[in-house]
User: Which sequence fits this backbone?
């Protein structure tokens, strides 16, 4: 071999590198924040996110990681009181319903501007609603939150939203089709945040397309989100998997941002997030595994959120006729040692559930007692029903960890052992979470299955309605003789305008559900945690994962 | 030679076509799908069905496949639904490729720089302390799982000694300028040397973790191969002729011993992507392996298709290069 070839190659590479470097030059602006005193306002907060934001336009989002980013940049008309699920003023300072509960008048905060300088006013609010309501075919699929909460688009039959009128610059009237407990709480959901009408038009926010088996987003959702919130979008570096937000100095809210920069580093693996926190390359991450809590408590600031979720065991008598008998469903419930399950498999602070909603929700019935662990009673009920030694298929998800269900396989094993102890034969049916589990259980194909729910906002309908308002839904309550009444009661209760009357009605329903119906078995509520390093303080943990990261005090 | 290359490439196209068909059908026969991952536990059955319809996922699989081929001919390989929603799957491949190439190059450099000299000297001092030690080391390299090794490396280098970062590709606060998306190169091109150095620091740990298996295999093949060659008659003849040690080592021993090693290197490069899936997950390194892992959990069909097909193509190309390298090293191959 001649020596000339490699030499020529080296020369070629060197030459091309020189050519390239002649074109490339540093475009860097030195905006490196440096730390110093406690609560340094020039500080950067690095947060380890479990997933990349699906889109920067919260209207088309449906997952927590995407909403976490939007919550720092956007505000809704309503918001939530930090650390609770209670509705609080945000861009609207007050709201009043008409006597029939179908017209809501919102008084708006004045002097607020979007990040691009567009003034926020009644006109901007109505433009936002018009934009959300008038989606093309692809948009109607991609904006899941609107579909789920408003029930349709463009004045379709059954749609909750009926119109928006700007009464004056700071007064807006929103009409809805029927009174509902969801209003105005749902306007605090990040999906319904107020976005700059100028930017929405300029970057064609509604030009979403279904193409190549996925949704192709317009420029707005890809790179130009503009809100009124405390942080502004700076960059989404896709090759480095980081999203950078910077302080909005004109933020009109009460809690002024205490950091200059907020960087989300996307680290999907939970162990890797924990190590990055220990190494100091990130300052916090969400949903630490309960197994790590003791260690994190010692070395870091482990913030435990109020529990705002329910883990339940769904039952479907249409799939498994054995479950038609209330005695069988009660027997299954008495057979589960929930105290033991909560103590050994769920994080500290978890509690046994007595109904299908957590304690903080208006309509929670305090007088309900949990079904105590009683294997003898379970056996007796089974023999009364003539189902001793019955078989059941119990479904559980794999490839997932949820705040209400940190380790699904362990919970499954505990329940299986409990049921086998009273003579029930259990057939396991594991299925990947995104590999059919969610679809099949939600489509009412599973006889008995583990599932849970974290509330969106503090209304009883957000829990009970999600589980039971569809008679053909996951537990197919329509198949029971009491099903139709139950579904009607739920919708009637939701439209009671008076809050205390509404709560009283739900308390009655909760009692009926647990004592007469028992369509499924509520298991527990678990408090999820969020963790920050010792250098970070000032972030209030929220049951809705609505942490205001911009209020962090970083001591670097 | 050119005809040989062309024939091999034609074979590769056929292989990829059959693979795409099998892959397409297999992915869609798995339970669940992208709609589940996108909608989570909140959506109603009607919403799910409507979304499947909108995305064309409810058509019969042959119809979907024909549409996929038609789109692919027009350069559209589908849109990501889970890894990076809304991004064209092929663009995503190009976006993530530099990271994995950078990592693989570093890993191969580490593996070669250690395995070939160690293999050679272990063979020269057969049965000695260095030999035994290296063999044990290579066994550990094969046996220790990446996530455990990653954990140990991060524990010492990142958490205890704060020398190297545990995750990522570059510190976000550097605000580095991007040119080619090869971060080390970009830093050199833009003269942001701190950005290059930072990227190298991020590469060291994952590259060591990724290098262990190729290191172990290349080391053992080199050692065995050198042992064989050392006992050949022509080496003895060369020594008898009084040739210098350097000439014997270079021209006679190493050159002949390198043939099986080159084959192994080729196979190892192909295997790097498999290793990269685990390594990139453990080190949150945003390359193709990380994308593949996320694509699996979110059932992102278009991204899975593109990544797996490109990996197969890469494999085919590497094999072809290995065969060509053979021809360069061993003149006998050329004359066949």
Assistant:
């Amino acid at each position: 071999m001649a020596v000339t070839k490699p030499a020529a190659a080296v020369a070629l590479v060197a030459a091309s590198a020189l050519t390239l470097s002649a074109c490339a030059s540093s475009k860097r602006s030195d905006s490196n924040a440096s730390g110093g005193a406690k609560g340094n306002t020039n500080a950067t907060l690095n947060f380890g996110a479990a997933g990349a934001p699906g889109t920067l336009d919260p209207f088309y989002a449906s997952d927590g990681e995407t909403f976490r980013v939007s919550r720092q940049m956007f505000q809704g008309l309503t918001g939530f009181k930090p650390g609770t699920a209670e509705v609080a003023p945000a861009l609207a300072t007050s709201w009043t319903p008409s006597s029939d509960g179908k017209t809501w008048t919102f008084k708006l905060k004045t002097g607020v501007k979007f990040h691009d300088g567009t003034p926020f006013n009644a006109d901007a609010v109505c433009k936002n609603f018009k934009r959300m309501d008038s989606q093309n075919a692809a948009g109607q699929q991609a904006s899941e939150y609107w579909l789920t909460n408003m029930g349709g688009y463009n004045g379709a039959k059954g749609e909750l939203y009926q119109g928006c009128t700007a009464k004056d610059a700071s007064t807006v009237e929103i009409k809805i089709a029927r009174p509902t407990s969801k209003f105005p709480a749902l306007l605090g959901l990040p999906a319904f945040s107020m976005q700059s009408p100028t930017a929405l038009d300029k970057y064609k926010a509604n030009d979403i397309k279904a193409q190549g088996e996925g949704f192709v987003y317009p420029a707005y959702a890809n790179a130009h989100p503009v809100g009124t919130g405390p942080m502004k979008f700076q960059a989404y570096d896709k090759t480095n998997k980081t999203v950078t937000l910077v302080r909005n100095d004109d933020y009109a809210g009460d809690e002024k941002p205490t950091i200059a920069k907020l960087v989300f580093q996307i680290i999907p693996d939970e162990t890797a997030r924990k190590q990055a926190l220990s190494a100091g390359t990130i300052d916090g991450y969400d949903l630490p595994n309960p197994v790590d809590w003791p260690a994190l408590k010692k070395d870091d600031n482990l913030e435990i959120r109020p529990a705002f979720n329910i883990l339940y065991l769904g039952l479907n008598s249409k799939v498994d006729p054995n479950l038609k008998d209330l005695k069988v469903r009660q027997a299954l419930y008495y057979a589960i040692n929930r105290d033991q399950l909560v103590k050994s498999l769920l994080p500290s602070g978890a509690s046994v559930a007595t109904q299908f909603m957590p304690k903080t929700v208006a309509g929670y019935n305090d007088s309900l007692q949990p079904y105590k662990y009683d294997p003898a009673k379970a056996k007796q009920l089974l023999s009364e029903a003539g189902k001793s030694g019955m078989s059941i298929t119990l479904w559980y998800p794999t490839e997932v960890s949820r705040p209400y269900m940190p380790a699904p396989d362990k919970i499954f094993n505990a329940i299986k052992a409990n049921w086998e102890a009273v003579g029930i034969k259990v057939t396991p049916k594991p299925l990947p979470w995104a590999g059919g589990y969610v679809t099949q259980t939600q489509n009412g194909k599973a006889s008995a299955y583990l599932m849970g729910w974290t509330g969106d906002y503090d209304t009883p309908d957000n829990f009970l309605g999600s589980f039971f308002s569809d008679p053909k839904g996951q537990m197919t309550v329509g198949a029971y003789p009491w099903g139709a009444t139950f579904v009607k009661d739920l919708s009637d209760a939701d439209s009671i305008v008076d809050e205390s009357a509404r709560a009283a009605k739900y308390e009655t329903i909760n009692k009926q559900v647990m004592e007469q119906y028992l369509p499924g078995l509520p298991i527990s509520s678990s408090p999820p945690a969020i963790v920050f390093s010792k250098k970070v303080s000032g972030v209030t943990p929220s049951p809705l994962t609505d942490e205001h990261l911009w209020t962090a005090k970083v001591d670097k | 030679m050119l005809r040989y290359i062309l024939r091999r490439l034609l074979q590769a196209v056929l292989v990829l076509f059959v693979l795409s068909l099998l892959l397409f059908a297999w992915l869609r026969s798995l339970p669940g799908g992208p709609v589940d991952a996108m909608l989570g536990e909140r959506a109603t059955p009607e919403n799910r069905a409507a979304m499947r319809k909108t995305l064309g996922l409810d058509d019969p699989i042959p119809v979907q496949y024909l549409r996929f081929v038609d789109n692919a001919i027009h350069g559209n390989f589908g849109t990501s639904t889970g890894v990076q929603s809304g991004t064209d799957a092929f663009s995503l491949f190009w976006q993530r490729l530099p990271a994995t190439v950078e990592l693989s190059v570093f890993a191969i450099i580490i593996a070669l720089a250690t395995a070939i000299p160690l293999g050679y000297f272990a063979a020269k001092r057969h049965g000695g302390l260095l030999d035994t030690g290296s063999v044990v080391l290579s066994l550990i390299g094969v046996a220790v799982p990446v996530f455990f090794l990653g954990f140990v490396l991060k524990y010492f280098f990142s958490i205890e000694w704060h020398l190297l970062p545990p995750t990522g590709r570059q510190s976000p606060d550097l605000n580095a300028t991007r040119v080619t998306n090869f971060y080390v190169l970009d830093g050199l091109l833009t003269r942001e040397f701190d950005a290059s150095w930072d990227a190298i620091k991020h590469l060291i740990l994952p590259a060591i973790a990724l290098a262990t298996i190729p290191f172990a295999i290349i080391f053992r093949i080199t050692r065995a191969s050198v042992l064989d060659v050392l006992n050949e008659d022509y080496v003895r003849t060369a020594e008898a002729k009084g040739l210098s040690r350097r000439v014997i080592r270079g021209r006679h021993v190493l050159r002949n011993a390198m043939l099986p090693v080159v084959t192994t290197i080729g196979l190892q490069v192909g295997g790097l992507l498999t290793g990269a899936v685990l390594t990139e997950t453990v080190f949150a390194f945003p390359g193709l392996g990380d994308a593949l892992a996320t694509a699996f959990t979110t059932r992102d069909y278009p991204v899975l298709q593109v990544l797996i097909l490109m990996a197969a193509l890469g494999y085919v190309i590497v094999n072809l290069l290995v065969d060509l390298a053979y021809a360069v090293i061993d003149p006998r191959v050329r004359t066949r």
